[in-house]
Amino acid sequence: MPRITLTIAGQPDDGLTRKAASELARLTGSVLGKALDATLVMIDYFPKERWFIAGQPLTDWGRNGFCLEVTLTEGTNTRQEKADYHRQAFELLADLIGNVHPHSNIHVLDCRGDAYGYGGVTQEYRYQHPRHLNEGDS
């Protein structure tokens, strides 16, 4: 179950929020092999005048920005898959948001299976007891 957290510099935009949520979930499924029905996406906005790169707010740069964090169970994706995801997610968000500062960033966070889960069940337990779980839970 990936958790996708996206923060976008600027004012809230419902259309952008829905499009980004849908496209990030789709990309996460296609590149990282994660089930769409177990993907959580949270999107928030942060004022450009309080978002600093190299000591200057984005308003001074005249640019947009984003920070994307994707939480995965450790060991479920290869280095190459994560590198591909970085590239494709940056391209996707740069296209959706437009005029992004190159220091907009992406963090793929590998969490230990015994410390990460949902529904009160760790991912390690899901791995150890697959027959007790629903198919969409992996």
TrEMBL record:
Domain of life: Bacteria
InterPro entries named among the record's database cross-references: Tautomerase/MIF_sf
Protein name, entry field: 4-oxalocrotonate tautomerase
Source species of the chain: Halomonas eurihalina
